[in-house]
Design a protein that fits this description.
single chain; alpha+beta; Adenine-n6-DNA-methyltransferase TaqI, Chain A, domain 2; 3 domains; 4-stranded antiparallel sheet; 9 helices
Length: 409
């Protein structure tokens, strides 16, 4: 063992500050992704004075079910205003920040190797809990405070760039949805004079099918008129050695998480790993639409396979791009409608079937409007996709930096 390795327990102390007088109202939870999140706990009738206060530069962790989750939930609280968390969590802080920076310690907790070591020691109970003493006996390298500051600065530069990219991605997709609503729901697309069509007196005609006026020349369609659904399945003829598998839980609101690389010779391939996909396919989970497990795929690998829990929509109508279909089926009004259908289902989980998506009614514009919209939507999604690719490289850089912590003198 290198001389600069120190026990975690020798550098931290437990903190137990109850919420006396109910001074703090903000209640947080802790996720396995090592982040604080708004609590979803039922607190009706709970004594909030027993909840623990957590302050800036303090940590919260859960040592329960570490082996089951294959991660130890632990996060550094960095907000200025204090919050409260469940008494089920342990709160601790660094004893001497002149010797160990809280941000550096959190970097160590972020390493996959830390989670694997935690799982190794998590043998308590049925689900594999980590004893506090075992956690304290785990070790980390503690270089000079100057070196720690240098490492933290480099790491934060990467993380901050990722955060800025995520803000831009979110803004681009929000703007695309706003334009979709303005043009295709409110009918305020730019007319020949670049003025909003409907409010500028554009010609409207009554349509019985949708029960309202629509722009002259536009047609009423259903999603099934412009896409094919679940058209391609994995077969033995594909002869893939591996597949990149995407389950429904690994994508949320068009943000794809980590794919599972599965080897046909060595791994058990999930029964649901059957749907083949291609560029500009839209995938939409048929369970709980309000959880937003959907997205539009950009240049997936040939061996990318998605779960049969998705409806895979492939645009086939002239001039109707994948981006437009994606914005259509994920429009807030349509999501609410699909969720209402799901809640009436008799299955174990609130769900829909692909036909519920295919039967969504919409108004198809004239070709000139379609082409204008396609140009706008493609440019926005391409920029968002480029930022997602950049984030992937940045995350790889952050993981490389974390992996090097163990070699620091």
């Amino acid at each position: 063992m290198k001389s600069n390795f120190k026990k975690i327990g020798g550098n931290i102390r437990l903190v137990d500050e109850p919420n006396k007088g109910l001074k703090v109202k903000s209640l947080l939870g802790l996720s396995v992704s090592k982040q604080f999140i708004p609590s979803v706990a039922n607190i009706i009738g709970a004594d909030m004075e027993n909840y623990k206060i957590i302050r800036r530069n303090q940590f919260a962790c859960s040592t329960m079910q570490v082996r089951r989750d294959k991660k130890m939930p632990v996060a550094l609280f960095q907000e200025k205003e204090e919050a409260i968390i469940s008494q089920a969590y342990s709160v601790f802080e660094v004893t001497d920040t002149e010797k160990l920076l809280p941000e550096y310690l959190m970097m160590w907790f972020t390493r996959p190797e830390f989670d694997r070591e935690s799982c190794f020691y998590a043998i308590g109970g049925i689900r594999g809990s980590l004893e506090w003493e075992d956690f304290c006996d785990m070790q980390l390298p503690v270089p000079s405070i100057a070196k720690q500051k240098e490492i933290v600065k480099e790491y934060n530069a990467i993380i901050n760039r990722i955060a800025l990219n995520n803000q831009l991605i979110q803004k681009l997709e929000e703007t695309a949805q706003a334009i979709y609503k303005q043009w295709f729901v409110d009918f305020e697309f730019p007319d020949e004079n670049e003025k909003p069509y409907k409010s500028s007196g554009g010609e409207m005609v009554w349509n019985e099918e949708v029960g309202k006026e629509i722009p002259k020349g536009w047609e009423v369609k259903i999603v099934g008129d412009v896409v094919k659904c679940n058209t391609s399945a994995l077969t033995p003829k594909d002869k893939f050695e591996t597949i990149e598998y995407l389950d429904t839980s690994n994508i949320t609101n068009n943000e794809i998480g980590e794919l599972q690389t599965l080897y046909f010779k060595n791994d058990k391939i999930p029964n649901r790993a059957k749907r083949k996909v291609k560029h500009n396919d839209i995938i939409f989970s048929t369970v709980r639409p309000n959880l937003k497990h959907f997205g539009i795929l950009k240049y997936p690998k040939r061996n990318m396979i998605v779960s049969t829990g998705f409806a895979v929509l492939t645009p086939v109508y002239p001039n109707v791009c994948g981006e437009l279909v994606y914005l259509l089926v994920t429009n807030e009004e349509n999501l609410q409608s699909l969720q209402a259908i799901a809640e009436m289902s008799v299955s174990t989980y609130p769900g829909i079937n692909p036909n519920d998506i295919l039967n969504i009614i919409f108004v198809l514009p004239t070709n000139d409007i379609l082409l204008k919209a396609t140009e706008i939507f493609k440019s926005q999604f391409e920029l968002a996709d480029s930022k997602k690719k950049e984030n992937k490289l940045l995350r790889n850089m952050s993981q490389l930096l974390l992996s090097k912590l163990v070699t620091i003198e």
